[in-house]
């Protein structure tokens, strides 16, 4: 099922950044009326004269629309090249009365267009549009990934776009079977999409973000398009209950492992709520100074093995051989879920991005929904209402 646009019925995530400070010109794509002539499939009027939808010496030609050449008597040849002679590909319609470019134009580039129809010849030059600033979006999950039932779709920008609606309208999600969902901006630079409930295992998802050439507000334009296809894997969930101090793992509804744990000690209670698994590291330096706890104030810098990310704020499932004595009986960590080396290695090898962890009964606050991996803690009534208007 394909959702074309809007904030409610659609779907959408890799980081690259490039900023270009350029000058802006007015677009001069030819849209003169010619109501007495037949219209082509692209909306360009086909006349008895060889003509293009861009004027000679035009500047500021937008890059999100194709270049077309038309002649109702038929076209013999068309050549569109950039300033270094690279050919821009295009295709004729069935009766060769229209040629349409299929390659996109580059920003801030010069082009030469030549065409013939019998004795008629067309020779033009033009320059494409130069945005004030470019922004690139990082799309997740990555193409080809298999992820857990809690994985949300994310598009993170390297600038702060001001027209959120334009971005949401540029994103299309196709799912099989049909899934409805909604967009929500968790930060000023990152939009997410998720269903009301966890995905069904086996769901196929295709995300297309047509950002290139799109005005994203205040002179900012998309640097490139993004797309990905991914699959929802098994329904794997972990529940960590501080009343029992056990982590129970289920796969498609059946318990497959139970692991003793030691969570956040008093004053560092592990936040409750739903977490979505993120990155995994065979070895990772845990450094409390990154969130403001100095070594003199009881902080730490500890290398840990088999670290599985639960939050952007630094909560992980990880090996903690120093606290095996407490695992299953008392809380000794600064918020992480301490496990034995064997259990942490099992998690590292068997738990995937997008799997769900629910933490209960710690006495801590609920994990912030804008943490980055806490999306499911935002109520659906809030999420589905959207916040494209800020």
Automatic annotation (TrEMBL):
Pathway the protein takes part in: Cell wall biogenesis; peptidoglycan biosynthesis; Glycan biosynthesis
GO cellular component, one term: extracellular region
CDD domains assigned: LDT_IgD_like_2, YkuD_like
Protein known as: L,D-TPase catalytic domain-containing protein
Domain of life of the native organism: Bacteria
GO molecular function, a single term: acyltransferase activity
NAD listed as a keyword: no
Entry keyword Transferase: yes
GO terms of biological process kind: cell wall organization; peptidoglycan-protein cross-linking; regulation of cell shape
SUPFAM superfamilies: L,D-transpeptidase catalytic domain-like
Active site (catalytic residues): 318, 336
Pfam families: Big_10, YkuD
All copies of domain L,D-TPase catalytic, residue ranges: 236-360
Cleavable signal peptide: 1-28
Keyword terms: Acyltransferase, Cell membrane, Cell shape, Cell wall biogenesis/degradation, Lipoprotein, Membrane, Palmitate, Peptidoglycan synthesis, Signal, Transferase
InterPro entries per UniProt: Big_10 (IPR041280), LD-transpeptidase (IPR050979), LD_TPept_cat_dom (IPR005490), Transpep_catalytic_dom (IPR038063)
């Amino acid at each position: 099922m394909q959702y074309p646009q809007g904030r409610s019925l659609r779907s959408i995530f890799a980081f690259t950044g490039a900023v270009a400070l350029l000058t802006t010109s007015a677009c001069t794509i030819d849209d003169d009326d010619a109501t007495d002539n037949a219209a082509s499939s692209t909306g360009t009027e086909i006349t008895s004269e060889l003509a293009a939808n861009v004027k000679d010496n035009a500047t500021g030609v937008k890059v999100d629309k194709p270049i077309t050449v038309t002649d109702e008597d038929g076209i013999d040849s068309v050549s569109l090249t950039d300033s270094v002679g690279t050919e821009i590909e295009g295709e004729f319609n069935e009766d060769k009365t229209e040629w349409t470019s299929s390659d996109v134009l580059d920003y801030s580039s010069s082009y030469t267009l030549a065409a013939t129809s019998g004795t008629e010849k067309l020779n033009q030059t033009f320059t494409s549009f130069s945005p004030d600033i470019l922004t690139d979006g990082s799309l997740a999950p990555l193409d080809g990934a298999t992820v857990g039932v809690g994985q949300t779709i994310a598009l993170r920008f390297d600038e702060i776009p001001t027209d959120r609606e334009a971005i949401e309208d540029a994103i299309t999600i196709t799912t099989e079977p049909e899934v409805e969902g909604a967009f929500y901006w968790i930060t000023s630079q990152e939009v997410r999409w998720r269903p009301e409930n966890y995905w069904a295992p086996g769901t196929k998802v295709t995300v297309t973000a047509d950002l290139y050439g799109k005005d994203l507000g205040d002179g900012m334009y998309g640097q490139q398009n993004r797309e990905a296809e991914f699959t929802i894997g098994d329904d794997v969930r972990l529940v960590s209950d501080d009343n029992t101090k056990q982590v129970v793992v289920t796969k498609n509804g059946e318990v497959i492992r139970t692991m003793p744990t030691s969570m956040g000690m008093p004053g560092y209670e592990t936040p409750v709520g739903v977490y979505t698994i993120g990155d995994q590291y065979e070895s990772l330096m845990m450094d409390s100074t990154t969130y403001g706890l100095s070594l003199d104030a009881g902080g730490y810098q500890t290398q840990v093995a088999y670290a599985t990310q639960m939050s952007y704020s630094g909560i992980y499932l990880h090996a903690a051989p120093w606290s095996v004595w407490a695992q299953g009986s008392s809380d000794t960590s600064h918020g992480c879920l301490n496990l034995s080396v064997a259990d942490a290695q099992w998690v590292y090898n068997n738990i995937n991005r997008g799997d769900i962890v629910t933490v209960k009964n710690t006495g801590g606050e609920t994990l912030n929904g804008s943490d980055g991996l806490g999306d499911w803690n935002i109520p659906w009534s809030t999420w589905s209402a959207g916040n494209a208007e800020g």
